Each structure stands twice: as structure tokens, then as C-alpha cells.
């Protein structure tokens, strides 16, 4: 059974930012945001940082930001982008990495380096690489409770026309994959993801397990917002959902920040993209009135310090904290 994110980690995997095309016109602050993320995670676990040929640059930024390097491991694994949740190693039990394929969300063409991260990670750290039948699956498309249930969306995995990851795959094919690889015999299918989501419906911008029986789900109060109806429908689905033992999950609302617009584009700003590490829960913030409530709520639920990380620049890359991190279970 693959552990839930809140269970003890051996490490967190991150990739050092370098692709300026992911943040056109806004790349300048991104390495400094990363420095703060590394600092916070390294307070409770090892950070395995994929740097390719950029170790000297990464060290210089971390040093200038006052980040201690005792618990930072630099791995010379090259990347195309930094969204390690999706391209990085997805850890299975016992002591294995799944050989999931990565095709850049069935949208981009530059992913040759990213597609090799799992095999290179397995070689670097001595993990077995487990064949999963050639399936494409991104870490941001799934959320696990560690007891046998998994959260996913139909928009991401079952749309037959847009960003199709596995042509010909249906609901039953995915559910068989989830049980075989993660021990998740029970899938909770929600509908659409949030507006502005470049991945076409990743669950980690929408709804997340925070304990084996409780799910936080984003809610929009403004009836005129594009997210309003789809988030209501997803909440209604949760009300009729069941966990692996047949019982109903509990659910709690998580507010949405006001729309974040840059260069005429709606960005996928969401508090659901938090990351649970050993020392804290890191929560993206957006200079929004709901920031404090989201940070406080998640800290209380997860019973660990909650730390807001400024993500208004970060989200211009179409992702924030959960998208860029991947946990390695203890």
C-alpha cells in the first residue's frame, strides 16, 4: 500500500528552476522562492535536488538566502522543467519506483529529459524500477489516503479528445492500474478541475485527502466565477462517495483565492496545491484575503506548522508547491 503524503518521508525531491520559458518575464524571483521552499522542507527531511549542470548556481542562491545545505543532496539529473510531482519518481512500496511514462501532459514536445527522471532516480538511489505496462500517469493526477482509496478526475483521465494520456483507456483500466500499483482498490472520481489548469484537470488543484477519512475540496462563493458550478458539482459527488470500507468520507471546504490574472490569462491559483512535509505543511499564498484562513485551516487539520509560501509569481508557471515536489516515503 503506497503511503499517504502526511506519513513520514525519507526525503522530498525537487528540481532546480532553469527554464525561463515557463515564467516568461517573471523568472527573476523564482529561484528565491525555491530557496525558501528548500529551507522549510530541509528542516525535517532530506531535500534531493535535481540540478543537472546547475549545481553551482543552485548552491550560490541557497547560500545567499542563508539556507543550510546539511540536508540538501544535489543530484546531477537533468530536467526540462521543474514539475517533479508529474515527471519525477512516483514511489511504490516496497522500495520501488514506478516506471510510469511521462509525455508532458499530452501537450508539450520538450520532455525527453523529464521522461528519464524515474530511471535515473532509481539508479542514483538504488530503488527497483517496476514496470507498470507503459501507462502514462502524473503524480498531480492522483491523491491517496494510504488505506486503499484514491482521488482522481474524469476531466484529466477520461476526456477522449483533450490531452489524452492513454488512448483507449477507460475507467476500469485506470482502476485496475491504481489497485495494481498503489494498492488503491477504491477510486473516487470527481468531474472537472479548476479554471486555468494547464494539465486539464489535475486533482491536486481541486481536492485532497488530509487524513484517511477526510477530504478538503475547493469551493467558490462567487456565482459569476467559471469555477462556481463545477466546484459545486464536485462537492455533490463527494457527498455520495464512499471510502474503501464502504463508509462516507468527511469533507471540508477550502476557499478559492480571487482570480489571479497575468498577461490576460487566468492562472490555476489554488490553496489545494499545498505540500505536506515532515516539518510543516507548505501552503501557496496569493496576496489574497483568504490566505490566512487557508493557512490556518490546513495547519489545524494536519496538526503541524502551516507556512505560507508566496506563489503569485510561481503560479505563472502554471503550478505551485505540490506540483513541484514529490515525496519519498520513509
Using the CA coordinates, give the radius of gyration: 18 Å
In the CATH hierarchy, what is the class? Alpha Beta
Number of domains: 1
| Name of the CATH homologous superfamily | L-arginine/glycine Amidinotransferase, Chain A
Percent strand: 15-25%
Q: For the largest sheet, list the strands in their spatial order.
A: 3-2-1-18
In total, the number of strands is: 18
As residue ranges, the low-confidence spans are: none
Mean pLDDT: 97
Helix content: 10-25%
Content-based structural category:
alpha/beta
The first-to-last residue Cα distance is 13 Å
* CATH-assigned fold name: L-arginine/glycine Amidinotransferase, Chain A
Describe this structure in words.
- This protein is an alpha/beta fold.
- The protein has a single domain, classed as L-arginine/glycine Amidinotransferase, Chain A.
- It is 25% helix and 25% strand.
- The chain has nine helices and 18 strands.
- The chain has helices at 30-42, 55-64, 84-87, 104-107, 117-125, 154-158, 171-182, 227-239, 291-302; strands at residues 9-15, 46-50, 72-75, 91-92, 96-101, 128-136, 143-144, 149-153, 186-190, 207-211, 214-219, 250-255, 261-262, 265-266, 275-276, 281-285, 306-310, 326-329.
- The strands form six sheets. A four-stranded mixed β-sheet has the order 3-2-1-18. It has a three-stranded mixed β-sheet with strand order 4-5-6.
- A hairpin with a 2-residue loop joins strand 10 (207-211) and strand 11.
